[in-house]
Amino acid sequence: MHGLINRSIQCFIRDTHGADAWADIVRAADLDFDQFEAMLEYDDALTYAVLDAAAERLSRPREMLMEDLGTFLVTNPRQQAPRRLLRFCGLTFMEFLHSLDDLHDRARLAVPELELPRLELLGYRETGDFSLYCRWRNPGFGHVMIGILRAMADDYGALVFLEHMGTEGCCERISIRLLEAAFSEGRHFSLSQGLQQGRSTGPARMEIAR
Amino acid sequence: MMDGGLINGTITLEQEGLALLLPMHVVADRHGVITACGPTARKLCPGREIIGENLFSVIDFRRPCGIRTIADLLHAQGQKLHLRARDGHDIPLKGIAVPLPGQGCLLSLSFGIAIVDAVARLDLNASDFAPTDLAVEMLFLVEAKSAAMAASRELNEKLQKARMAAEEQAYTDTLTGLCNRRAADRMLSRLVESGEKFSLMHLDLDFFKAVNDTHGHAAGDHVLQQVARILKEETREEDLVARVGGDEFILLISRITDHERLDGIARRIIAGLEQPIPYGDVICRISGSIGTTISDYYEIPEIDRMMQDADSALYASKHKGRACHTIFIPQPQPRNGAAGSAEADRQGELPRRADRADQ
Predict the structure, then answer these.
(1) For the residues B116-123, what does the mean pLDDT come to?
(2) What is the pLDDT of residue B304?
(3) Which of A43, A180, B124, B301 has the CB geometry, 3.0–4.6 Å to B128, for a possible disulfide?
């Protein structure tokens, strides 16, 4: 699995449960390094060794941990890129849901080696009932998706009800009930913010950005 | 015949529809007066109502050259136009113009590669672009690439640091912190290539084995560390001091080939080495023998040859009863005029015993 995913798991555990917890998990998972590199590729088995060790160490079901990881990805203030890149996908939460089919290819556009689950959204806008099919050789990432969707709904200010409906083969199904697309204000999103932050800008440019 | 708004090859379109398709369009009449524009085009000049203004006072037509009237513009129909908004920021634009009935003109604009700056300056958001416009996708890509590059850069920096640390280790003698043989070889070949004058001293400690045998390896290690300190003290920043064997050292002295000065350096080193070195309850005593050769002797200095010559000078020092410094005396070589005459000046030079009274 790509280092970006493994690194996210590491940051999630370290930021939310502390460096000691991470050190314990590294030991329990029998890693021969103490941190993942974001731009390297790792064996899938290592990721699950870490997730299982984390579930054990933190006394939480693996599924719940993966869901929290998804939420952390979007809400972590120290790493804004995932949230911003997801917000680029649509102007509203509905548009965002419709763009999920492209997520796999969008990720590949940014980092060609980065492999994510293939997503497919089925359902009707009228009733607000959708099913998201999440296909990947690596099981359990539907739970990460639930965490991401929950955080993104908050970000857009939408009210949704999400549920993991189980796994068939390599396919996980998530039920999405969109109760209210514009329930609350949501978080502000500016197209240029991240670009300005990402650059080494002088005071003049920052002034313009404001 | 009428089919879906198409009449005799003409499409009739409501203005709202046009605004959705082309949010960055501008319509001007045959006199160049702007009569309508899309919502994003309206934002090009913040705080300014552009409807009713002259197109050419709002937009600077740069390429092709010489477009000053609507007639010029229509003449360039189908060509890619390079423009700038006269908004105070000179935001670059790309455009294309087509004629409208009544000799007016429809101009469709985009930001092209300037999109990143334009979005920040004009505070645009995704609803300012048609869904078919790749502008937002491009911003996505720019941001995604920046994030990916940042991650790559982080990894590269880490690898670079690891490489430097490994390289330093590879060139360092871990016990003394001095350079090792590899570093000495590298420096020696650099000096030879640069053609700079230098001297090569080969130092072998005397009585060191006795320290090791009598007081143990820990004492020996301590002595070696003190030797390293003395050698560093007695040489300059630009010189190189390397430990090349258990108790063997090489010193590369740049730009000094004067015999007296070299002898002075060697004598100070030997005097330093002969200072008693306390280790716990015991006092360790050592000395050193040095053999030196200088680059002046060789028309083209060769590393192996110089090492050999420094070695034989060192052997001479040992032979003289240790604690000596000897400068190598080259054998006369008839075919080598330069070395021959230099050698003649040195006829009287003999291995000298370091003056122990100097301590």
Answers:
(1) 88
(2) 87
(3) B124
Q: Which of B90, B143, B160 to mutate to test the interface with A (most CBs of A within 10 A)?
A: B143
* Residues forming beta bridges with residue B129, ordered by sequence position: none
**Tokens standing for residue B237:** 């920043």
Whether B72 is catalytic is no
Greatest alpha-carbon span in chain A: 55
Q: Domain B181-358 belongs to what topology? A: Alpha-Beta Plaits (3.30.70)
At residue A194, the pLDDT reads: 62
Can you give the residue ranges of every domain in chain B? 2-133, 136-170, 181-358
Would an 8 Å CB–CB cutoff place B155 in contact with chain A?
A: yes
CA angle B215, B220, B226 (to 5 degrees): 125
Say which CATH class A81-180 falls into: alpha beta
What phi and psi values does residue B29 have, to the nearest 5 degrees?
A: -85, -175
Q: N- to C-terminal Cα distance for chain A?
A: 39
Residue pLDDT, tens place only, B24-36: 999 999 999 999 9
d(CA B359, CA B354): 10
* Whole-number pLDDT of residue B87: 80
Condensed to tens digits (0 to 9), the pLDDT of residues B132-143 reads 999 888 888 888
Between CA B102 and CA A45 the distance in angstroms is: 70
Ordered by start, the domain boundaries in chain A are 3-60, 81-180
What pTM was estimated for this model as a whole?
0.68
Note the pLDDT tens digit of each residue in B158-190.
999 999 888 888 899 989 999 998 899 889 888
Strands B25-28 and B104-110: antiparallel
Confidence bin at B79 (pLDDT 50/70/90): very high
Q: At the top level of CATH, which class does the domain B2-133 belong to? A: alpha beta
Q: Which of B247, B309, B345, B355 is catalytic?
A: B247
Cα separation, B178 vs B250, in Å, equals 10
Q: Prior bond to B39 cis, omega within 30? A: no
CB atoms within 10 A of CB B91: 19
Flag the least confident range among A95-109, A114-128, A182-196: A182-196
B125 touches chain A (CB under 8 A): yes
Find, among A175, A181, A189, the residue nearest to A159 by Cα. A181
Which carries the bigger pLDDT value, residue B63 or residue B349?
B63
Contact B97, B76 (CB under 8 A): yes
For A136, list phi and psi in degrees, rounded to 5. -160, 155
Span B211-217, mean pLDDT? 93
Distance in Å, alpha carbon of B48 to nearest chain A alpha carbon: 18
* Contact present, B73 and B65 (Cβ < 8 Å): no
- In degrees, rounded to 5, the angle at the alpha carbon of residue B292 between the alpha carbons of residues B289 and B296 is 175
* B168 contact partners, CB below 8 Å, separation of at least 6: none
Q: Residues of B with CB below 8 A from A88's CB?
A: 126, 136-137, 139-140, 143
pLDDT tens by residue, B225-255: 999 999 999 999 999 999 999 999 999 999 9
- Exposure string of B279-306, with b = 16+ CB inside 10 Å and e = fewer, is beeeebebbbbbbbbbbbbbeebeeeeb
